Amino acid sequence: MNYRFENGKHAQLTIDLEVAAAKSEIWKLLATTEGITQWFPELRADNLPEASKLTFKTESVQEEMTLLEYVEGAILSFKWGSGRVSLMLKELESTKTLIHFKVQLPYDFTGLSKDLAGWMMQLERLRTIAEKRAFTFDKDTFRKYIEEIETSLGERVI
Fold first, then answer.
1. SS3 (DSSP) at 82
2. Percent of the chain with pLDDT over 90
3. What angle do CA 102, 66, 77 make, to 5 degrees?
4. Other Cβ atoms within 10 Å of 18 Cβ, number
């Protein structure tokens, strides 16, 4: 996984992830509830693009996230709290796809470092699901990502 953090008006995490799966298969994992819940169980993507939203739902929280951009088979972008998440797909080969992921969040976003690290873990989970492999959540890797993010963002993290 190639990733980088950027400081600017917002905290930004960009990830380029090569996945050994067809672009159409990855799109199903991004743009349908059946697919997205396999790698991000709290997200729902019912009836896109007509519904114009995704839903984040836990036992205690339900939040609708406005669909910002939808290009069938290629781009999915939506609000994420007070920020934005974008996923773009590019076919590299018939069974290899590049996922270009970007999340932009304000520095005062609650749990900023954990949220960004969570996205890193979720994308790795997406890759393993797409490649039909088992995913194991590694707490040490999650903590390492949080530390890298906090170091990168410095005192801008609240």
1. coil
2. 86
3. 25
4. 15
- The encoded tokens of residue 118 equal 């969570």
Peptide bond into 41 cis (omega under 30): no
Low pLDDT (below 70) residues in the chain = 155-158
Length of the chain: 158
User: Which residues, in sequence order, are CB contacts of 37 under 8 Å at separation 6+?
Assistant: 43, 44
Q: How many CA atoms lie within 13 A of 32 on its CB side?
A: 10
For the segment 49-94, what is each residue's pLDDT rounded down to a tens digit? 999 999 999 999 999 999 999 999 999 999 999 999 999 999 999 9
Helices (H), 1-158: 23-31, 33-39, 112-130, 139-153
Interior angle at CA 125, CA 145 and CA 143, nearest 5:
20
Q: Is the pTM of this model over 0.90?
A: yes
Cα separation, 102 vs 14, in Å, equals: 4
